[in-house]
Design brief:
The protein is α/β, with parallel strands linked by helices and 144 residues long. The protein contains three helices and five strands. The protein has helices at residues 71-79, 92-100, 114-124; strands spanning 2-6, 22-28, 33-40, 63-66, 83-86. Strands 3-2-1-4-5 form a five-stranded mixed sheet. It starts with a strand and ends in a 20-residue tail after the last helix. Residues 110-144 are annotated as: Disordered. Keywords: Plasmid. Residues 12-98 form the Dinitrogenase iron-molybdenum cofactor biosynthesis domain.
């Protein structure tokens, strides 16, 4: 089985898979890493620029591990039978080892609502003190 790990700086797992051009490719069996090599894509071969396809060099992987995968890319991976995994783990080797042990901590992907994001941008110009985003207020039952 082949596992690709997005790692633009070749050290840590990348959080923006679409723009990533460096991937560690691991050849594994059910228990251990057998081989590891760096795959470097050209800018044109990145997920972002190869839409709606998967980059040819990544067609033979079964799993893609990253720090962030958008909904569109996750759908493209699923269509190709590739398991897309979003994790908070930063170290590529550890991510693969924990994946093989079925203990890799996964982050839930949150679908984006593009219309809502557009409306936020539009509303920003109308917001008096320049902040477009606010942290939610949490009521702890105390009266101030």
């Amino acid at each position: 089985m082949k596992i690709a790990v997005a790692s633009q700086n070749r050290i840590n797992i990348t959080s923006h898979t679409g723009k990533c051009r460096n991937f560690w490719i691991y050849e594994v069996n059910s228990q251990e890493i057998l081989n590891k090599k760096l795959l470097q894509l050209s800018k044109e071969e990145s997920f972002l620029n190869s839409f709606p396809h998967i980059p040819q060099a990544l067609n033979n992987i079964q799993v893609l591990i990253s720090g962030g995968i958008g909904c569109g890319l996750m759908n493209r991976l699923e269509e190709q039978g590739i398991e897309g995994i979003v994790t908070s783990e930063r170290e590529p080797d550890l991510a693969v080892i924990t994946y093989l042990e079925s203990s890799l901590v996964r982050k839930l992907s949150q679908p984006r609502n593009r219309q809502r994001r557009y409306n936020r941008r539009r509303d920003r110009s109308q917001h008096l003190h320049g902040h477009a985003y606010h942290l939610p207020t949490i009521n702890l039952g105390k009266t101030v």
